[in-house]
Amino acid sequence: MGLPLRMDNIHAPTVPSGPASNTSRNGDLGRLSFAELQNKKENMEAELKALGAVLDSHGVDMNTPLTTQDGFPRADLDIAQVRTTRARIIHLRNDYKELMAMVEKQLHEHFASLQEEEKPEVPLSGGANNTLADHSASQPLEEPFAKVNAVVPGSPAELAGLKPNDQIRIFGYVNSSNHDNLKKVAECVQGNEERPVLVRISRPSQGAREELHVTLTPRRNWGGRGLLGCHILPL
């Protein structure tokens, strides 16, 4: 009987798991428009989904052992394809993380520029630290895509200033064109735990609507369920 092959690193990707992009290519992200970044993000997500399907077709994930208990490579798997697919997923995840950081940076810069043109900030009731500001009527408004149905007292959502019946126009990098039935909102929340997310809302007020924006920080251990403490419904 033969001895097991010495393949101590068989579970490792076929190429190093460091960032896939070189410095010059990553630097190009700063020259892309927000729409181009969004398109790049969607392309990465589509490729990650396709690569995940490849692993699923083999019945494995990123951590499934590729050897038998005796230390032999599993004969039921295409080891080379699994390792190559895993390596590509690792590289894409690294690139995706950097891309999302650039998306968030552009959003912060966008809202900062809007603040300079808005009216003075109005303190929220209840002693909250965050503030709301009236949106300038001269600015184009994004179509609302969701509505706040309920807000739990003491939650991150309440501290940010969200109220029932607020309509959401922008949630971080999510808007009416890409929210995917609110799946992207959940993705944005999960990816920004303990980080501020800029949210633009439209609020009914005395027969009219106020255009406001708040800073919402998803977090755990606030005393209730979820990271926000509010219920959001699609429009």
TrEMBL record:
Residue numbers spanned by region Disordered: 1-28, 116-135
- Lineage top rank: taxon: Eukaryota
- In its keyword annotation, does this UniProt entry include Membrane? no
What keywords are annotated for this sequence in UniProt? Chaperone, Proteasome
- Stored SUPFAM superfamilies: PDZ domain-like
GO CC annotations on file: cytoplasm; nucleus; proteasome complex
Indicate the segments forming the Nas2 N-terminal domain, all copies: 35-112
Keyword Transcription regulation on entry: no
Q: What Gene3D superfamilies does the record tag this protein with?
A: 2.30.42.10, 6.10.140.1710
Name the record gives this protein: Probable 26S proteasome regulatory subunit p27
